[in-house]
Specification:
alpha/beta; 10-stranded mixed beta sheet; two-stranded antiparallel ribbon; globular; binds adenosine-5'-triphosphate; binds magnesium ion; manganese; NAD binding
Length: 360
Amino acid sequence: IHSVAKVHRVACIPGDGIGVDITEAATRVLNTLSTVLKTFEFDFTTFDWSSKAYLERGWYMPPDGLDQLKKYDVIYFGAVGWPDVPDHISLWSLILPIRKALNQYVNVRPTSILPGTKSPLADCKREDLDWVIVRENSEGEYSGQGGISHEHSEHAVATEVSIFTQVGIERIMRFAFDTARSRPRKKLTMVTKSNAQRHGMVLWDKVFYQVAKDYPDVSTDKMLVDAMTVRMVLHPTSLDTIVATNLHADILSDLAAALSGSIGIAPSSNLDPTRKNPSMFEPIHGSAPDIAGKGIANPIGAFWSAAEMVRWLGETEAADGLMKAISNVTAAGVKTKDLGGSEDTKGVTNAVCKEIEKLF
Ligand code: ATP
Ligand code: MG
């Protein structure tokens, strides 16, 4: 009997630099999964929205770009940014408007040390570092509010306004508490800078303690962001789920990725928990112009992001299988240079595809 496979519609935005290499690798791995499992298919549509295109035609996304994206089940994103375009232009033309317009107010960034890889922290074992950073993705320091006056004089004045709302804080806190509750240690660390920033950060603290009352089974603690960087390095085992603002979590998750072995393995999910809009999945690294086009980028962050996407789509067996395939490949020592190996992007991709075929 031939049953009809479910079709998942994926909008693919490879973007710039190694974003292109790793999106191609991730697409191959996803197609291998669906071919082997046969219970679902992916229908990919690729959008050439990139800095390269911008330099040629003057725009990243067409005027109806956000409406186009809304027609898909999920979005897979590579990276955006190129040295010839100021970073604030590329970010504000593509990734930030998508997160905002599609209500992706949560950014989830898991971190762990993969088998066969090492943390730069001496003595840090695999089980010592297992975190999920929940990043507020819609307001805070990246609200885009502010301005500059007297720009072309020696007296230029700029403001960069952080926006924090009760509604915005409360929804990210609830997501973070739910995440903490779903994990064995049931532990949430909240990060602020409420000693020096006395408005938004103090509201953040207050809402945290309010929401905590609904989660008596989750243990909590509060850290200032500066002390948090020290704790991540010196006492990694003491942490589990972490919630922080847009800016703080951006920085802490780069540190977390580096501590887990390489920025090249870390995934992120931009989620609209209401599921009214498509969510977006992307590795946390950028376009890495220094290694772009050389075929040596680590595709693991892209694969892990793809696994998170597949899980979000409800394909749990496929997600677990992909994660298992990734672990088996790193455990066997098939790794790119950033993880201390000697394989290239293609070598790791081939190995993961072969593992998937073996697993199912
Ligand atoms: P963004 O502003 O988009 O975060 P960035 O300027 O912070 O980008 P990345 O592009 O994330 O920088 O990368 C920093 C460096 O880390 C790169 O120059 C590259 O050497 C290395 N790197 C990043 N991603 C990978 C990867 N997937 N594989 C190997 N090395 C990587
Ligand atoms: Mg960066």
